[in-house]
């Protein structure tokens, strides 16, 4: 009986060992706002100043050029949450809110995305996030 337990425990130990190696290789550090802000600024993104009272402490707003006279400034909002789970929850809540407001699933998909612990949202109703904007943000997300 003792031999069977020891024999059965060996595969379990191998699985645990493999899982711990995989867990150690998985990056758990969340993206941080300060180095991301610096990178976006170096790439010419016009960001709202940190002193802006409308900004939450975990938020960056990339102000895009106006598309014409009298139009409201368009922005890309980046919210940095504590971890990917919190970001996924925030994304689900935001998707639900957009859906309740009558936006289609396709519209939501073009205007809202997540990269690990960061939720990215474009506030312009007409145009979604472009590949270039997403590439700039993706290239600037820093730990």
Q: Termini distance?
A: 51 Å
Q: Helix-strand pattern, N to C?
A: HHEEEHHEEH
Give the helix/strand class. Answer: alpha+beta
Q: Give the domain tally.
A: 1
What's the alpha carbon Rg, rounded to whole Å? 21 Å
Main sheet properties: 5 strands, antiparallel
Mean pLDDT: 82
Major β-sheet strand ordering: 1-2-3-5-4
Report low-confidence residues grouped into runs of 5 or more: 9-26
Describe this structure in words.
The termini are far apart. The chain has one domain. The protein is built from 5 helices and 5 strands, in the order ααβββααββα. The chain has 143 residues and is α+β, with helices and mostly antiparallel strands. It has a 5-stranded antiparallel β-sheet with strand order 1-2-3-5-4, with helices on both faces. It is globular. Helix content is 48%, strand content 17%.
Features:
alpha+beta; 5 helices; 143 residues; single chain
List the helices and strands and how they pair.
Blueprint: H1 2-25, H2 33-42, E1 46-47, E2 59-64, E3 74-80, H3 84-100, H4 105-111, E4 112-115, E5 118-122, H5 131-140
Antiparallel strand pairs: 1-2, 2-3, 3-5, 4-5
